[in-house]
Amino acid sequence: MQRIPGRGEGRKRGGQAARRRLRRSPHPLRLGGGGGGGTMPRDNMASLIQRVARQARVTFRPPGANNNSSAGGGGSGAGGNGGPRFVENLQRLQQLLNEVRAEDLRLVPRGPSAVPGPVQPPVSYMHICETESFSMGVFVLRAGACIPLHDHPGMNGLLKVLYGTLRIACFDPLGAPADGPGPGNNGGGGGRRSACESSTAAAAASPSRPASSSSRRRQRALLRSHQLYTPASSPCLLSPHADNLHQIDAVGGPAAFLDILAPPYDPEHGRDCHYYRLLDGQSLPPPGPADQLGLPKEVWLLETPQAADFWCGGEPYPGPQVSP
């Protein structure tokens, strides 16, 4: 929404090369068409995505790591808890992302590329690059597709719309997840399901029955925003403690966004992806300004398995080569 593992097929939870933004199971980067052609990038754009990658490396490099990149000095821990230098580097990264357009990555508006078989993925992922400190790639969503409500444990992230319109709901986690029903809730499990963001095809959910809602973890959260993003919008940010859970929907047609996660998903280091939905009796307000929606607002979430009808395919990245 990660997160893309390997180069085969898998789901959205941890990471291996390709985008661990989903799970460590492989992501089908070889599936689908080349996704490209069309408008050529602006003259100076062949180096723009390279500059974005280098700035991401500087911004999210581990504490104490040496970095001789010309993108700028300083840096901070990948956890985003650094001081003024981290803020400065993050602002520079946001500025560069603001300049990126679909044509700079040789993308034309469309949905995910077709794959063999009768069932097509609602979302596909193009892996651009990945290091130990960050991953970068493009998610392509078909019209009406949803990347479900999920978290990014201990991670920072930036999302920049390349084409289309996304509806994004952002939540802050409030404390650690807990077992049992939340206050003021009877523990029911069947409320409205929040959107889905996941990662690979074959990994789409096992047919086994999920655990009862009473045995799943509840997460207290703060709904901070629910708004529309377009290519003219500034990047949507997340940090370990603010806007760390989000749900992403494509509205009015196909959409695509450039995605940076720092560090990538990695279950072995406690950065696995967890899916949630709003508990019974709760629903998202229509998108709009936070003050008009009465936000922020406290809500309770229920952890769920990855939805059986959601997965993410993989396809080749058609844009300029990147070496972070």
Keywords:
Jelly Rolls, disordered N terminus, mainly beta, single chain, 324 residues, eleven-stranded mixed sheet
Count of helical segments? Answer: 2
Count of distinct strands: 11
How much is the radius of gyration in Å? 19 Å
Indicate the percent of residues in helices: under 10%
Q: Write down the overall geometry.
A: globular
Major β-sheet, in short? 11 strands, mixed
Characterization of this structure:
- This protein has one domain (45-314): Jelly Rolls (Sandwich).
- Strands 1, 2, 3, 4, 5, 6, 7, 8, 9, 10 and 11 form an eleven-stranded mixed beta sheet that branches.
- The protein starts with 47 loop residues before the first helix and ends in a 10-residue tail after the last strand.
- The chain is mainly β.
- It has helices spanning 48-60, 84-99; strands at residues 123-130, 135-141, 146-150, 156-173, 178-179, 217-229, 236-238, 245-262, 275-278, 297-304, 312-314.
- It is globular.
- Residues 1-12 have a biased composition (Basic and acidic residues).
Write a compact overview of the structure shown.
By secondary structure, the chain is mostly beta strands. The chain has two helices and eleven strands, in the order ααβββββββββββ.
SSE blueprint:
Blueprint: H1 48-60, H2 84-99, E1 123-130, E2 135-141, E3 146-150, E4 156-173, E5 178-179, E6 217-229, E7 236-238, E8 245-262, E9 275-278, E10 297-304, E11 312-314
Parallel strand pairs: 1-11
Antiparallel strand pairs: 1-2, 2-8, 3-8, 4-6, 4-7, 4-8, 5-6, 6-10, 9-10
Helix pairs in contact: 1-2
Biased composition (Basic and acidic residues): 1-12
Region (Disordered): 1-43, 60-86, 181-220
Protein name: 2-aminoethanethiol dioxygenase
